[in-house]
C-alpha cells in the first residue's frame, strides 16, 4: 500500500547535483516521465509479512515487477516477503558455485569475495570505522596511553584487534601477558591478584584448574537446587545484580585442600548482591569445621 510519493529538489554544489529537500506529490506522478528518483513510501501488503506496521521507503527506479506500473496502486511487497519460498529466485537451488559457474569462474568469485573483506580491505579494521563506532583503535600508542593511565607499562603489543596480545608490567614490576579483550574486562595484574588471595605464584596454574572445577560444579548444583539456594529468585530475575557466593571461599578451599565437591555443595552456596560479594572478596563467612559438619549431615 503506497502511503505517499516525494519529489527530490536538487541544487548544484561544486558541480554536483545534491538533493536538498523533498516535496510531496500525487501518487499518479510516479508514472510520469522523470519520476525515477521519486521516493515511494509504503507499507507491505504481504499476507504473512512480519513487518506489517513498518514503513518502507524506496526509489521509484527500484520498483521491480512486484511494484510495476500496472500493480503499483494495488500491492506493495517488501524485500523480505519477495524472498520467501518460491518468490526467492534461488528457491530450491542447492547447487554449489562450482556447479553453477564452473571451476574457473567459481574460484575467481570466491577469491574476489575473500579479497573484499581480507586484511586492510576489511571495513571493521579501518580506523575511521572504529572511530565512528566509538571503538578504541588498538595500536601501540592508544593502548600505551590507556594502560599508563591505569598504572601499567606497555612493553609490547602483538596484533591490532580484540585478541591482540599485550605484554604489561605492573607497579610491582610483575611482567605478564594478557589478551586485550581480557584486560578490558579485568584491568589488573594476575600476579597481584593471586598475591592478594594468598596463592603462591608457583601454584597459580594448579589453583586455576581447581577454581574452574569448583565453578563448573557450582553451576550444576545451583541449577539443580535453585529453590533452596535462591528462594526469592533474585539471581534469575536480576542476573547481573546478584552473584552466587561461596560462603567458605574458593581460595581458602584450595589452601586447605578441600574437595571441590564440598566447596560447591548446597550448604556453601548463597545468593547475595554484587556489591556485597565484591566487598566480601576472598574472605570466608563460615569456618571449615562448620562447613564439613553441614556437608556431612
State the main characteristics.
297 residues; alpha+beta; 4-stranded antiparallel β-sheet; 3-stranded antiparallel β-sheet; 14 helices; 9 strands; elongated
- Low-pLDDT residue spans: 65-73
Number of domains: 4
Mean pLDDT: 85
Helix content: 25-40%
Strand order of the largest sheet: 2-1-3-4
Shape: elongated
What is the strand tally?
Answer: 9
Compute the gyration radius: what is it?
31 Å
**Percent range for β-strand residues:** 15-25%
Query: Could you give a short account of the major beta sheet?
Result: 4 strands, antiparallel
Please trace the helix and strand order, writing H or E for each element.
EEEEHHHHHEEEHHHHHEHHEHH
Assign the structural class, choosing from mainly alpha, mainly beta, alpha/beta, alpha+beta, or little secondary structure: alpha+beta
What would your notes on this structure say?
With 297 residues, the protein is an alpha+beta fold. 36% of the residues lie in helices and 20% in strands. The strands form 3 sheets. A 4-stranded antiparallel β-sheet has the order 2-1-3-4, with no helix packed on it. The protein has a 3-stranded antiparallel β-sheet with strand order 5-6-7. A two-stranded antiparallel sheet has the order 8-9. A hairpin with a 6-residue loop joins strand 5 and strand 6 (165-169). The longest helix has 21 residues, at 204-224. It is elongated, with a radius of gyration of 31 Å. The N and C termini lie far apart (72 Å). Mean pLDDT is 85; it is low at 65-73.
